[in-house]
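COURSE: Structural Biology Practicum
ASSIGNMENT: Worksheet 4, Part C
STUDENT ID: 0417
INSTRUCTIONS: Below are two proteins. For each, the amino acid sequence is given first, followed by its structure token string. Answer the questions at the end about the second protein only.

PROTEIN I
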Amino acid sequence: MDPYIDGVVPIPMSQDEQDFLSGNLRRIHAAYDDAGFDLSALPEKAADEIKRMRELADSEGTRAVEYLRRARKSEANVARLMLEEEGAKDAFAHVVQQKHDADAECKRLRGLLDAAHADIRRMSQTHNDNVTGLAPEGDKS
């Protein structure tokens, strides 16, 4: 058994075969069934339906290609956004590190300022004590 001869394997029609079939369907006239129903319009309807289905397939193919193009563009945008997000995370980590460094520097400067204020208060108290005469006996000049 040969599958090609016995019709098991479908073989697509060539464009010439499709055109021949479509043209012959339009040429059949005065065909009647057993009940006397006029069948002459059926081949034309079939040819029109074949044409409509081909046009539909073409338009669906065009829509599919457009959808695929948009999907690929969207994939590229997603990849770009992922890279931007990764860069933003790196930049944010850098900013956070700078903030931690600035906080540490502020604490260090706050300590120095507090020590300077303490020195000023101590020196001011000593000066006030000297001016008002409250200084110890050995300190008077």
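PROTEIN II
(use this one for the questions)
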Amino acid sequence: MRPALVSIDPGVHSCAVVAWAAPTSGPTPSGVTLYRGALTTHCSAAETPLQVLELLDGWGFLGAPVCVEVPVKYNTRRSTHKDITTLLQVVAGIRVAYPADRFFGVTPFAWKGNTPKGIQASRILSALTKAEHEAVSWPKKSLAHNVIDAIGIGLRRAGRLGRGST
């Protein structure tokens, strides 16, 4: 197993992190398989990037390229975007640990288009093998969508999942 990619769905108090490995021998359809996936423990936004890096270090994936969902801050009449601003700070905290050629940011629209969440989740889960599904430490149901999104980001980056309805 060789570390190939890490995909992350950032959160204010935890991040969904998925590690993807390339085989040491023999081709696979996409070249990468899901190695491990988990949700970091609940903590402050300032601590979240450190938890991500510690998790990746423990898995042996600290140097792998990372693909992170980057939220988009749209102009609205609302005066604050507190959650989005905090998410962008979490992403920035992860970003500083990586050289430019190993960090890839992707907007939600870029990787999933306008596909409804339930449909997209079904597509993501059906793209996994049984072994890949079992490699994930699934959180409680109310938080599982975060891990599913991190898997989707990785599948999209690896070429195993089209954007939206493609």
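ANSWER KEY EXCERPT:
Q1: Residues 8 and 148 are 10 Å apart (CA to CA).
Q2: The chain has a mean pLDDT of 89.
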